[in-house]
Amino acid sequence: MSTMKKIAAIAGVSTATVSRAFKSPEKVSVSTRDKVEKAVTNAGYYSNALFRNIKRTESRTILVCVPNFGETFFDDIIKGITEIALKKDYQVLINDSAQNKGRLNPFTIARQIAGIVFLGSNFPLNLTEASRQYLPPIVMVNEFISQFNLPTVHIDNLAASFNATNYLHYKLGHRRIACIAGIESHLFCQNRLQGYIQALHRSNIPLQKNYIIKSDFGYGAGAQSFKKLMALPKPPTAIFCHNDLLAAGAIYQAKKQGIAVPNDVSIMGFDDLKLSEYIDPALTTVSTPRHKMGEKAAEILLAYLDEHKIAKRSYLLESSLLVRESTGYLKKPEFGIRN
C-alpha cells in the first residue's frame, strides 16, 4: 500500500482528498485537513513527496519556541529577537514547548512559518530527517546540540563555570566548594557541572560527591539543596549554583537557619536575572548576554530569509562574572552546623 493510501485509510478519506489537502488546502474543509495532517503526524509518514506537495504561503512570521513560559531567563532573549524582527517587518509568535511537546504539526509549520528559533532542546515537534529538510530555517539559542547541525547562539557554559569556581578558590580562598546543579538532561547543565569539576581538579581539590546536589531549577530546589549541604559533617564554605533561582532559594534557607551569607558561607548564582540585584545580600553571579543572544539569533535567521546567507554552526558570546555581596573571603577554617 502506498503512503498516500495509508494516510487516506487512517484519516478515513480518499487519496484524492489527501492530495488536495496538501496541494490546495483552501479547497478542503478545516476539519478534513486536520484529519489528514493528524494522520500523517501520528503515523510518522514524512515522505519527500508529501512535503513537496505542500502549498506554501508567503509568511513573515517567526516562531519562537520557549521551553517554559514560567522562566524569566527567556524574557530578555525574546525581547532581543522581537526587536530585530520588527525592524524587518516580521512578526513573532511565541510557543510554549512544555505545553505543546510533540503537538506542533510539521506540515502546518512548513506552510505558515518563515523561520523558527528554539530557546532550548525541548522541541515541540518531531525533528525527523525527512521533515527537517522541508521545514523553514531553524536557529537555536542557549543549547548547542551537535547532532542537529543547526546554527546556535550560546555561551561557553563549561568555561564560565570553571572560571566561577576558580574565583571562589583562588580569589576568596575556599576549598570546600559545593555545587547545586540544574536539570541533568540539559546539555548546558552538564557543561556547567563539568566546568565545576574541572576547576576542582585543576586546583588539586578532591571531588566530594556529596557536595554535588542534582536538582530542578527553582527557589524550592535551592532551599532544599542548601539544607542537605549544611547537614553534612563538614558542610561547604562556598556553593556554586547553576542558576540564580537556586541561589536565591539557598540564601532564603540560610537566613531561615541563621547562617550568615557570606560570613559563614558564600553563595554564587548563574545568569544574572533581575532579581539577583535586589535580593539580600545581592547575588554574585555569572552574567549571560541574553538580550544579545536573542538579537544575534534573529539576525542569523533574517540574514538567511532575506539574503540567503548560510550561517555557521556555532556563535559563542562572552559571559562575565559579576561580583556582588553574596560571596566573601574564607574566614573560618572550620564551620559548624547550625540548626
Task: Please explain how this structure is put together.
The protein has 339 residues and is α/β, with parallel strands linked by helices. It contains 13 helices and twelve strands. The strands form two sheets. Strands 2-1-3-4-5-11 form a six-stranded parallel sheet, covered by helices on one side. A six-stranded mixed sheet has the order 7-6-8-9-10-12, with helices on both faces. The termini are far apart. Residues 334-339 have low confidence and may be disordered.
Describe the secondary-structure layout.
Elements: H1 3-11, H2 15-23, H3 30-43, H4 48-52, E1 61-66, H5 75-87, E2 91-96, H6 106-112, E3 115-118, H7 129-132, E4 138-141, E5 152-155, H8 157-171, E6 177-181, H9 187-202, E7 212-214, H10 219-230, E8 238-241, H11 244-256, E9 266-271, H12 275-278, E10 284-287, H13 290-307, E11 314-317, E12 320-322
Parallel strand pairs: 1-2, 1-3, 3-4, 4-5, 5-11, 6-7, 6-8, 8-9, 9-10
Antiparallel strand pairs: 10-12
Helix pairs in contact: 1-2, 1-3, 2-3, 5-13, 8-9, 10-11
